[in-house]
UniProtKB/TrEMBL annotation:
Residues 28-238 form the Haem-binding uptake Tiki superfamily ChaN domain. Residues 285-309 are annotated as: Disordered. Pfam families: Cofac_haem_bdg. Residues 286-301 have a biased composition (Basic and acidic residues). It comes from the Bacteria. This is Ferric uptake regulator, CjrA.
Length: 309
């Protein structure tokens, strides 16, 4: 296996194989033919992730035309606006405005949605509403009790189901970035609230995927989400499996090719997914710690200014 040559190239491998022979997208699709749910983790905004998703969508469709696209990138309360676009009742800019689509929608997710539209395939807005997630992260899970009946229907019925291994991984990733004293009760509470917000997203995606299976029995689901929601079959994948252990769920996870190394150590990543795709690392967002910290403070300050009521 050779290192990816540019930001569009992905090198796909089976981590259970003793060799590092790469798979084509078509070969990968054939290995996924019997899966009920195919989950492709992504690094948000990475060209190789988005190109692989579009290529795999086509390859899976050519094997099984009865396909459903499920996306973290749309929230459950935006489903009607998304359906209007798929039905031809609104234009793309109208859909983007009405759904609050991600800033990189046109560059990254348009091909997936347009493929679904042209083949009359359902697209599931699977993520929990960002406003509710934000308020859980800020004030705690008790805010669920104050939601209206209509709001409550936009999130998982069991919003905080958990798996112990996922909590440890979350604490390792998020806790380290927040820093702080382990004995700081306020910090622990903030981290716990942040974790509950993460669980709200994962549980809602899991329940929406399961609902899609009930609404469209026998159809293969292609679900797209950020890597943390599915890596090591944790997050949304583990919570979906807990609800429906009979489902055949396959996970494809990205791995950055290590810098200055001719070959990655596959043993470090064997549990990341049923299949892996190696890709070039993304450029550093910041070189200056001061500018990075200032940007993070501004981001959190803007979120805190939005009301939770």
């Amino acid at each position: 296996m050779k290192a990816p040559l540019n930001q569009y190239q992905a090198q796909i491998v089976d981590p259970k194989s003793d060799t590092l022979n790469t798979l084509t997208v078509e070969q990968l699709a054939r290995r996924l033919a019997d899966a009920d749910v195919v989950v492709v983790g992504e690094y948000h905004g990475h060209h190789a992730s988005h190109l692989l998703q579009a290529q795999l969508q086509l390859a899976l469709f050519q094997q099984q035309p009865q396909q459903i696209l499920s996306m973290e990138q749309f929230e459950t309360h935006q489903q009607d606006a998304l359906n209007q676009y798929l039905a031809g009742s609104s234009g793309e800019s109208e859909m983007i405005e009405d759904t609050g689509a991600w800033d990189n929608y046109r560059a990254s997710y348009r091909p997936l949605v347009e493929f679904a539209l042209s083949h009359q395939l359902p697209v599931i807005a699977a993520n929990a509403p960002g406003a509710i997630v934000r308020c859980v992260g800020r004030e705690g899970p008790h805010i669920i009790d104050d939601l209206s009946q209509a709001q409550r229907q936009t999130i998982a019925q069991q919003p905080f189901l958990d798996t112990p291994a996922y909590r440890q991984r979350f604490d390792d990733a998020i806790g380290a970035s927040h820093g702080g004293d382990d004995d700081d009760g306020a910090m622990k509470q903030r981290l716990d609230n942040s974790y509950k917000a993460q669980l709200l997203r994962d549980n809602t995606m899991a329940e929406r995927i399961l609902q899609a299976r009930r609404d469209y029995p026998g159809q293969q689901i292609l679900h797209i989400n950020g890597i943390f929601h599915s890596e090591q079959r944790q997050g949304a994948v583990a919570l979906l499996h807990a609800r429906a252990p009979e489902l055949n769920i396959k996970v494809i996870s990205p791995v950055f090719w290590p810098e200055d190394e001719a070959m990655p150590e596959l043993s470090d990543h064997r549990t990341n997914g049923d299949f892996l795709y190696f890709l070039q690392p993304l450029p550093d967002a910041y070189k200056s710690d001061d500018r990075r910290n200032r940007a993070m403070r501004e981001r959190f300050s803007q979120a805190e200014q939005q009301p939770c009521n």
